[in-house]
Amino acid sequence: MPMHPDSHRPKNILRWKKLHALFAVALVLQAALAAAELRIGIIGADTSHAPAFAKFINTPPANDPVEGVRVTSVFKTFSADMPLSANRVEGFMKRLLAMPGITAAASIEELAQNVDAIMILSADGRAHLDLARRVIPFRKPVFIDKPLASTYRDAVEIIRLAEQHGTPVFSASSLRYTLAKPALAKAAQTAKMGAIKGVFVWGPAAFEPRTPDLFWYGIHSVESLYAVMGAGCATVQRIHTDDTDIITGIWPDKRIGTIRGMRDTKSYFGLTLLGANAPLTENAASGYAPLVREIITFFKTGKPPVPYAETLEIMAFMEAAELSKQRNGAPVALDEILKP
């Protein structure tokens, strides 16, 4: 005798209850995984760094995986009086929003509220202080793309705010990690070099009329210089022509670091470490991966890999070089900039 269809109901109900329980567990696990994933928000979509950084984080190469982080939000900012900002922002924003999982925030505050870490990538250093003021109180790690600010005083204020709110801040050029650090690593494995007595750095130094000279592109070479020499420079002297700048820093222990900034050549970076016994020359590698990995580590640990004092002195060094140019190449003591 065939069974009535209702006779299967208890088994069906039990089966559905099990499936529901499994589904609920899956949702909990999914939520846990999502919670473990560090969400990054990008402010400033007017630079190629924005889509490049986001692509590396969200869709990394198979041989260079990135785990536990994801860019989830972007807020568009740009400078109307800077063509390289205003004319490119829509294209970069379109590329960002085409990436799965990235949405446009309605405000900076909304973005800061809904992420775990923040990248200020605005191409215009003049905007960085105002943007930093708005996000630092959220007490989430903040990476500020080079330059930290467009003046030394603005940079000091950013660091003051960071320390006041207990918000870790990090700023660096990619050349610190694709040029200076690899050179230093090779030097450490080459005992015959002896102590590093100085460095000669070269690279492009195009200007942007709305920012001080070196704050636009020369900062890459200045950052490479400081990655080798460290903070503590005493004087800066700059020889300037239309096509070239020679900027020399002298440290109290008599070490000398020199930058050749070029505007009449193709874009290439390099440096020579000057050892007591032998030199070592390195050409810059391409790509942002080493810098982005440093940013991710910073976001996870909250520990800036470059000391605030060094970051601020880089700003002061560039202002001192600007003063030296205005004074027809006269040496400028860094204390003139660093004094309160």
From TrEMBL:
<feature type="domain" description="Gfo/Idh/MocA-like oxidoreductase N-terminal">
    <location>
        <begin position="97"/>
        <end position="170"/>
    </location>
</feature>
<dbReference type="GO" id="GO:0000166">
    <property type="term" value="F:nucleotide binding"/>
</dbReference>
<dbReference type="InterPro" id="IPR000683">
    <property type="entry name" value="Gfo/Idh/MocA-like_OxRdtase_N"/>
</dbReference>
<protein>
    <recommendedName>
        <fullName>Gfo/Idh/MocA-like oxidoreductase N-terminal domain-containing protein</fullName>
    </recommendedName>
</protein>
<dbReference type="Pfam" id="PF01408">
    <property type="entry name" value="GFO_IDH_MocA"/>
</dbReference>
<dbReference type="InterPro" id="IPR036291">
    <property type="entry name" value="NAD(P)-bd_dom_sf"/>
</dbReference>
